[in-house]
Amino acid sequence: MKKKIFRSVLFSMLGIVIAAMALIIIVLNNHFISVEEDRMSVEASLAARGIEMNGEKFLKSIDTEDYRITWIDASGTVTYDSQADASQMESHKDREEFKEAISEGSGEAIRYSDTLGRETVYYALKLDDGTVIRISEDYDTVGLLTIRLASPMLWIFLAVFGLSIVLAGSLSTIIAKPINSIDLDHPLENKTYPEVTPLLMRIDQQNQQIEKQMDELHQRKKEFEAVTENMSEGLLLLNKDGGILTMNQSAKILFHMQENSHAKLTDMNEYREFVSSVLKGSSANLDLNVDGRNIKVIGNPIYSHKVLIGASILAYDNTRAHKEETMRREFTANVSHELKTPLQTIMGSAELLQNHLVKDDDCDTFYQKIHSESERMLTLIDDIIRLSQLDENTEADEKNLNISDTANEVRESLQQSADKKHISLQTELHDVHISANARLLYEIIYNLTDNAIHYTNENGTVRIRCYEENSQACVAVSDNGIGIPYESQDRIFERFYRVDKSHSKATGGTGLGLSIVKHAAEKCHGRITLISSPGKGSSFTVRFPLI
Ligand code: ADP
User: Fold this and answer.
1) pTM score, two decimals?
2) Distance (Å, rounded) from C-alpha 276 to C-alpha 311?
3) 278 lines ligand 1 (CB under 6 A)
4) Residue to substitute in 386, 463, 514, 542 for testing ligand 1 pocket (most ligand atoms within 8 angstroms of CB)
5) Measuring CA to CA, which residue among 240, 298, 250, 293 is closest to residue 271?
6) Which of 3, 42, 331, 462 stands the most exposed, by the fewest C-beta atoms within 10 Å?
7) Gap between the Cα atoms of 297 and 286, Å rounded
8) Cβ 496 under 6 angstroms from ligand 1
């Protein structure tokens, strides 16, 4: 703005100076012509007097170095010329000044000479005898006058130019100062030109509007942050190049990421491919393995006015569901396998019997096989049903139970099995009360004691103890049986895991007993631990919170 004012002032001043100079030259020129004409009229009058008294002799006697004098008779024929041979000259009857002098007594004319580049001023005066005396003098054209005045004019121009620069500079500073010092944050508090006031009022209105919009934006940002920061799912918003615009706390925790850097994620090929497919406009899902956890990632493109501007990525820890899904799949495969084996035995035996391929003496063995395999299947199905019931997460009815009472019931039920193997089934029971489901507690102690009897050789000892320890209610089932190899001790609670498959099957085991025990113990708020030495025996202890 300052520059513009400066230029405008400078050029205006220079324009005015140039125009003034041109006008002065024109005025000067006209002035010189009129002065010249006045002088020539006087000279012509004097010459006329001289001719009247002495005729041509007078003309020849005067010095005509600075001007030319011509005497023309009434017909236009030149009788004398101070600078040319009169006899050689053409008739002047058509000359403007001559005609005017004949008709009006005197006449003037200015003619331009291309050859001289100068103008000639003519003044003609009619004498009493009808002849005409004409005086002519060269006169500078405007161009010539300009050239003559060029040097002083240039100095004047330069002086004015310098002055204009100084003036334009200070003027532009003075004009721009109030505008430059306008406080745009408080436009109405400024004292400046009245012409600027409407603009300042408009700025004030816009400031208020912007402030309102900023408040709304802050409010929305706060709401957005409140929602996203309290989400358990991770949320990432990406721009159209895949860069992070925002990410919530859960996302940082899920992916172990630093503020606004998803370097850890972008290191993963699958993530990069996933983001590029989302940024091409299609929704996508991805299962990511981050430090052994299964993270489910869902991506959706974001459009604004039908133009893709980025993507939203939602992520959550799916490890548990993923693990359960894997376990379910393995469980289904195991169940199919476990059920298939006895079924095949039953079918094979039935086919042999149906086709009379079995000797009469062996028939009983085959019937027995069908019976025992069917029994095994039923046990297996019962265990599967128990496990899926436990999996269902339904709340079991709880009541105040004395563990010793349940342990006594179990002892009574299994006394016969123990007796069959000449195993001494001992109990050491103290009254300890817990809040639990009666059936589940019974199943826990029953399965542990049943296993102890199964995996203890004849004449062994199985002991059930109920006691209080470290403010916990404990039930321990120990035996001096075959024990469990150290490498298997972590796995025996897995479904269908058996240390010795043939031994387990021979004893009617399904490989689900300890899984049921672990599940049931958890449902009763308890925790199971195992101490076992191969060849020496095992001790399972379940600890419950006391009432
Ligand atoms: P199973 O029906 O085969 O007994 P469990 O889940 O009850 O299945 O037990 C898993 C495995 O743990 C068994 O196959 C057995 O090898 C081992 N086991 C369980 N209890 C004992 C025990 N008291 N002594 C030795 N091994 C045991």
Assistant:
1) 0.55
2) 10
3) no
4) 514
5) 298
6) 3
7) 5
8) no
Q: Per the structure block, which two tokens stand in for 68? A: 């030319």
Q: What is the CA radius of gyration of the chain?
A: 63
Residues of the chain with pLDDT under 50: none
pLDDT tens digits, one per residue of 116-158: 556 788 899 999 889 999 998 877 666 666 787 788 888 988 8
Distance CA 411, CA 462 (A): 10
What's at 284, amino acid-wise?
A
Distance of CA 491 from the midpoint of ligand 1 (Å): 10
The best mutation among 414, 445, 463, 492 to test binding of ligand 1, ranked by most ligand atoms within 8 Å of the C-beta, falls on 492
**409-453 tens-digit pLDDT:** 999 999 999 999 999 999 999 999 999 999 999 999 999 999 999
Quote the pLDDT of residue 406: 97
CA 408 to CA 427: how far, in whole Å? Answer: 8
CA of 530 to the centre of ligand 1 (A): 12
Q: Report the distance separating Cα 57 and Cα 45, nearest Å.
A: 17
Q: How far is the CA of 241 from the centre of ligand 1 (A)?
A: 57
Give the pLDDT of residue 140.
65
- Residue 207 burial (C-beta neighbours within 10 Å; 0-12, 13-18, 19+): middle
Which tens digits make up the pLDDT trace of 60-117?
887 777 788 899 999 999 999 888 888 888 899 999 999 999 999 999 888 875 555 5
36 lines ligand 1 (CB under 6 A): no
Q: Is residue 479 in contact with ligand 1, taking CB distance under 6 Å?
A: yes
- Among the atoms of ligand 1, which is closest to the Cα of residue 447? 7
What is the 406 CA–ligand 1 centroid distance (Å)?
Answer: 22
The burial of 359, by beta-carbon neighbours within 10 Å (0-12 exposed, 13-18 middle, 19 or more buried), is given as exposed
**Cα(416) to centroid(ligand 1), Å:** 20
What residues does 529 pair with on adjacent strands?
Answer: 541
Q: Facing residues of 123 across strands?
A: 108, 135
- 499 Cβ inside 6 Å of ligand 1: yes
